[in-house]
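User: We ran a pulldown and think these components assemble together. Before we commit to crystallization trials, I'd like a predicted model of the whole complex to look at. Sequences follow.
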Amino acid sequence: MSNIEKEARKKIRRAAINKNWTLFKQSRLGIVGLGIVLFFAFLAVLQPILFLTGVWNEGVYDPVVGYEPERFELLVVECPQQYPTEKYQEPNDCPARGEVNKVLVFDPSVSVGDYYETSLQPAPPSSKHILGTDSLGRDIFSQLMEGSQVAFLLGLLSATVGVALSTILGSIAAFFGGRVDAYLMRQSDLVLMLPFLPLLFIISAFVELKVWHLAVVLGILGGLGGSVITIKSAALQVKVKPFVDSARITGGSRMRILFSHILPNVAPLALLFMVFSVTGAIASESVLSFLGLLNIDMSWGLMIYLSQTDGYIFSGLKYWWLILPAGLSVTFLAGGFYLVGRGLDEVFNPRLRDR
Amino acid sequence: MDENILEVKNLNMHYETISGDVAAVKDITFHVKKGESFGLVGESGCGKTSVAMSLVQLQADNAKISSGSITLDGQELIGLSENELRSVRWDGISIVFQGAMNAWNPVIKIGEQIREAIREHYPNNTKLQNIEKIKELFEMVGLSETIIDRFPHELSGGMKQRAVIALALSCNPKLVIADEPTTALDVVIQDQILNEIKKVQDLLGLSLIYISHDIAVIAEMTERMAVMYAGRIVESGPTKDIFANPRHSYTRALLESTPSVVGDKVKLNSLDGEPPSLIDEEFGCSFSPRCSNPTENCKSGKSEMGLIEVAEDHFADKCCVECG
Amino acid sequence: MKKNLIEVKNLEKYFETSAGLFSRKKSTIKAVDGISFEIPFGESLGLVGQSGCGKTTTARALCLLDEKTSGEINFYNSDTKNMESIDNLNDEELKSFRRNIQMIFQDPYESLNPRWNIKDIILEPLNIHNIGSLNEREDAVVEILKTVGLTPPENYLPRYPHELSGGQRQRVSIARTLIMKPKFVVCDEPTSMLDVSIRISIMDLMLNLAKDLEVSYLYITHDLAVARYMCNRIAVMFNGKIVEIAETEELLKNPVHPYTKRLISSIPVPDPTYERVVYDIDFTELENIISTDTKNIGMVDIGNEHFVATHDVKGIL
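Assistant: Here's a predicted model for the assembly, 996 residues in total across the polymer chains.
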């Protein structure tokens, strides 16, 4: 390869990236989605850096075993028998923030009106724990970052497995046709008919599901389902293109045509599928964790699950830092990937592109 | 007879795209006389369809007419409201698009679709009157009456295209624009359609603008013609004069590169190079890179483009007339 | 006596279609219905007819893309110096035989893989047949790009098809086709989608290459004017059958079959002073005669190597 050729190649690649980026930029939603995804990626990467540089002490901030409760001085009060009173409107108001019910202080030396020093779990956001701590005194923000790592790992791994599977099977179905096609299509129908969550419940009953197990299971289920049918129809369109005929006339083998001609041409569609299926994987993980069916150290779904088992989930917004950060993270990251998919659609979809 | 039905003066139109403005129509001036058929010939991307779209103001959303005037029978079309345009579009000008035969709604009978168009413009007509009208139109374009009750997929390409022509004629337009109406059709069917168009034109005294990339079709169909290149008209005039005495190198190249089945087999000459990108700024004559005989002025980009009259009613681009 | 490169005898290609969703009845479409022709070395045959007449089906059968229903295709074997049927080849022989036949397609936008750059596209045949070392292959690509007029080659090698114009893409197609030095190239309307001014340069290129590389073309087109420019002989096809076949000028000056006459008289003439007279025929009747007259199958030589189908067409003459 001559130098001129290398130069030209570099230039062309840069031009192609520029053009695709321009197209992607046109979709505002795509940009918003990309921003969200990058934000969470930043969070995921930030945590290990904080530990390594010693900004965070692992004993305190570790998302699973870290522990350092905040110390608080609480005003000891006595909750009235009857509501409303002058101070409290209803039972939920007592004790108010910064107060503790005398009945709950099992220390006879303490009396109403005293200040009682205690550790508060879960503690609300403070300068030390910017999103507060959970009921075991662990830092929520650190958990959120850990959850972000899990979400990326799970989402990308399952999407990769799924898309690789559906692209290969879809292309094979289109290329070989006949019985192979018929078998693969019936298989897709079958997988499509399976109720997704109940199936996962059953699997988790037999197998201890770890994150990457789940990723593979989700990937396989996603990769055998409807996306095979869609990829197949795309591959069928490629199969009848003259350049495929041209390769056949020249004597190209079936494998060559399948892998060099058909696969690269359905790849953009597959990439689109991949981005969209990340959304599904993240959501599924949350549901399974929330139901306590995964053997997993920490994840967003698990954070919500813990707040539920500890009884905080129905407390409304009083303990918001236990529920909202994790819930919003699931929503935003899943949504973010979806929006990136919409943006990519703008780039890949020739119908939208020809403007 | 010498009255002009359509006059286009200094029309400029461009498309706004993400890669920049594409100047599709540059300083176009021509006129069509009453009852005449006028040909517009040029390669793909030369702006001939853009001209047609501007005439009926049906251009794409990102197309902007920056200057110029279009007068149809004395009425200025540029600046009309959407409502006024709608009445002009069928009563005044109607257009047969390239590939229009594939634009029929597949689930509605052909007759019904034409009747709808007629009803829109003649709301007082009875159903029977409309059907009579359609029968008349079908007879004109050589379709049998039974086609009225057929669905589009039951017809062949040629029949569908005839029906499109019937539709275009349904509201008695003064001017019909035919934009490559036979491009996707076989030669024999093309021949039949061309005959039909000629016959109808004679019968109704229609004015016709015939757009094509095929100079042979233009030679047969039109009395006057214009040759377009890179958004500009480079030569216009009576068809016979242009064929007998082409003054622009591009016209000459087109004539020399069209094979024929009659006469002796002649060596055809090719035109090297590609048409210029319409995004780039123009420097001098846009044809000069492909010109067989450019002058120094041409090559340095100093020459200016613009039509001058070289013979009666025969215009050609200044630059090329100077080149010889 | 001219040496033939390829001989086609009674080639038939039928398609089966089922009549309806729940119907078991099948009907047969005779896309190519017993056609015969031969192409001598270095000569080109034009196959002309309207869309649906079976010319593309013929091309695909000749390129071994689709299996023929019956008939013989014999090809000159340069080792044994004999005509040999391509049906008898085993897999390995077939693969090496494929070097001899190539095809150029109509649509320059679809005939090049959009995800490959020009270099890889042209290299592919060499890679498939494992010809030469990697360096030799690259040199061959550079050489062939020069031959088809894409210079300097370095500018084109790394580019992708969508960055080229229609004419340039068709040149790439031709380069890819010719890099194997085939003896026989099937051209399926290779210039019909190109602009007039570019069309002639592509046709000239193909003509020159045919002369230099001793390639024979089967040139498929609906445009007799183009066929006249490209071919020594022309075969006119109608409803799956060849109705007339002759030397190009002989066919144009002296057409015998009514369909040929109709076809020739349908072509617009680029001369406003020329009065074209259309030779009108009844197509339904012609179709009936051709599909029902099974007694008189065959071609008769009326002199000058001018063959006409023998079915009874007096009724429409």
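DSSP finds eleven helices and twelve strands in chain C. That may be worth checking against your pulldown data before setting up trials.

User: Thanks, that helps.
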